[in-house]
Amino acid sequence: xxxxxxxxxxxxxxxxxxxxxxxxxxxxxxxxxxxxxxxxxxxxxxxxxxxxxxxxxxxxxxxxxxxxxxxxxxxxxxxxxxxxxxxxxxxxxxxxxxxxxxxxxxxxxxxxxxxxxxxxxxxxxxxxxxxxxxxxxxxxxxxxxxxxxxxxxxxxxxxxxxxxxxxxxxxxxxxxxxxxxxxxxxxxxxxxxxxxxxxxxxxxxxxxxxxxxxxxxxxxxxxxxxxxxxxxxxxxxxxxxxxxxxxxxxxxxxxxxxxxxxxxxxxxxxxxxxxxxxxxxxxxxxxxxxxxxxxxxxxxxxxxxxxxxxxxxxxxxxxxxxxxxxxxxxxxxxxxxxxxxxxxxxxxxxxxxxxxxxxxxxxxxxxxxxxxxxxxxxxxxxxxxxxxxxxxxxxxxxxxxxxxxxxxxxxxxxxxxxxxxxxxxxxxxxxxxxxxxxxxxxxxxxxxxxxxxxxxxxxxxxxxxxxxxxxxxxxxxxxxxxxxxxxxxxxxxxxxxxxxxxxxxxxxxxxxxxxxxxxxxxxxxxxxxxxxxxxxxxxxxxxxxxxxxxxxxxxxxxxxxxxxxxxxxxxxxxxxxxxxxxxxxxxxxxxxxxxxxxxxxxxxxxxxxxxxxxxxxxxxxxxxxxxxxxxxxxxxxxxxxxxxxxxxxxxxxxxxxxxxxxxxxxxxxxxxxxxxxxxxxxxxxxxxxxxxxxxxxxxxxxxxxxxxxxxxxxxxxxxxxxxxxxxxxxxxxxxxxxxxxxxxxxxxxxxxxxxxxxxxxxxxxxxxxxxxxxxxxxxxxxxxxxxxxxxxxxxxxxxxxxxxxxxxxxxxxxxxxxxxxxxxxxxxxxxxxxxxxxxxxxxxx
Length: 845
Hints:
Elements: H1 13-32, H2 39-50, H3 61-86, H4 90-102, H5 112-116, H6 124-134, E1 141-144, H7 151-158, E2 162-165, H8 170-179, H9 193-196, E3 205-208, H10 225-236, E4 242-248, H11 256-265, E5 270-277, E6 291-297, E7 313-314, H12 317-327, H13 351-359, E8 374-375, E9 379-380, E10 396-398, E11 404-405, E12 416-419, H14 420-423, E13 435-436, H15 440-443, H16 446-459, E14 466-469, E15 476-479, E16 493-495, H17 503-515, E17 521-526, H18 532-541, E18 549-551, E19 566-571, H19 572-575, H20 586-594, E20 601-605, E21 616-618, E22 621-623, H21 627-638, E23 643-647, H22 677-701, E24 705-706, E25 709-710, H23 726-744, H24 746-752, H25 764-803, H26 815-825, H27 835-838
Parallel strand pairs: 1-2, 1-3, 3-4, 5-7, 16-23, 16-24, 17-19, 17-20, 18-19, 20-23
Antiparallel strand pairs: 4-6, 5-6, 8-13, 9-11, 10-12, 12-25, 14-15, 21-22
């Protein structure tokens, strides 16, 4: 097995996971000999796997304990079934598993991550009790929403169940991917597991050990964290299925603080067993917290307020197993929905095959689906405006294909419109025919297919002129065509569709066209790392493997991107990371992966995030170029043959927003009469909005820009009012009073923080910035507060619409902030002492 260098470990979780697995294999040999693993032996295994000591910071002792847990999983996969056959009672199995657990070291050291996220894996003996309570049979589909390192999952696999595994923590999810290589591990917040899993994934058993009081992306403790996890998993469970959860001891129906919550849970599933467990069970895992095992069957309780009596506090797992055997009822018949399907890719059945796969595993994207493509057929047509129609009578005109007709394609599911200026001119008749799957007309609408065609048409040509690019990718200079290192830039395309036109699906279609032509690398850049789920959804909707869309964050800055093919997903914030010592910039890292002759697709989604790429003039003087915009330009300069697509619904609102659009040929060439970007900006600014409209129309006439949006024809509006309750008024008053206190003491706080100038007085600029930050935070807070207050009424309205057969589309707007601004503007600063009363909403929000 190749030993990974210590420098490569910390930043790339999937590589880090491989090293942990390598250490686990060394520890497995010790377990097989019945040898106790002490700290010295564990340290040796980790130093060999990571080629570094813990003092280097490459690994810590939490990582070492995870290697022990992985070794336990490997041991149980190899010997677990034979052990279960030989020991056919829970008590006998407990004895054997306790001996194995006794060979492992006690977790005496914690990391900040393990404490912050409450990453305490389930002890194997307690896991055996959960498995006994679940009564798993071979046809069961078992979901573990927070699978950790797989200690519960391997016991479920030994019992014959097929697995659905989810884990949000990146390194642990990568470990699961290598420990269970035949499965696809989902990586979503388990507190909303029902919202994220596909409709076809319907488990008959849920095994879970959720964080007791922490939530993903939420700072501080959340008292109802376990309840949220349990409620979401119960919603996903098939009717008649069984949920077994390990929680904190205080989370039980007999506890007054949780009784009402359990009453609500019993409207969907009945509690059939609950018992607390002494903290000594967790002692070897570094804590002595008391826990609880609760069993819920997915069948509404006859009386939600009635619960089974708790047996009290089990002093050990043996006692708990005896209670489970005596008190837990048999399983109910399971009813799955018609669209549910069995889990594919069950766990490997042979140790030899498993070891061969894990030993040769490389951190690469999943292999691509060998989709076959055919050239899309369409007919170019000559377009003329409808006779007698005056396109300027309306602001928007109904959208339709103008220069092409695509046989067999379907209209967009919702009516689209475009501005009258855009509708007054047709794009040129194209010649490019994209390579797409035979059933593409079932997957993309006519408007979406038109985008793929015109993007390919634009990418078939190069901009006028030749250029040289310096080593930093910042400086681009005109050069003779025969000059050394002279390059030509491929023409780009801009997609300016609004919400509802399916910009993500169109972007995926452009990538797929190039993919089927053999260009198996692409880059997809967007504003947020959360949008990778949308990119994966759009990619898989076209029949491709969703995990081919891989986040750049998997690979440490400065380290090679080890992907033979795939769609690399990055954010603008990540892209702007410059050189850090010996670590090259993120742009350079991507360029090294793609190669300087790369001619595949780069999607700049939400490209307006690169606005002000060249700097400009602001209300307070010159504005420096944005780091994100400069990084986007560097990537374009470094890859002149790349097929660039700009995606933004607000791309052509201001001329400065187009400074990043180097591939549209707006300046510096023969296509447009502007020698430089500065000349272009100055000319368009002088022309105002009318010039921007003419520019957009001319870009459409060239076939490199399209902008369509949803039609609101026939839309009716109904005002839904939410009447504030007394409790909501009290909450609002309390928060308003708190912000008033902060406001009244802001000057003193800045003085204490020494925000002063050289003369000892408050620095006016720093003071202004602090007040601005305070006001922004205040407005955002009250905006979220008001939105949350309105949510119950909104949900009831949605439910009524759904019952009436309608579909619900929700858009959150900042009306709360606008309300705050209006109310605060009416209050003189000197009256802030009374602001608690003055800004309370009076009637409705």
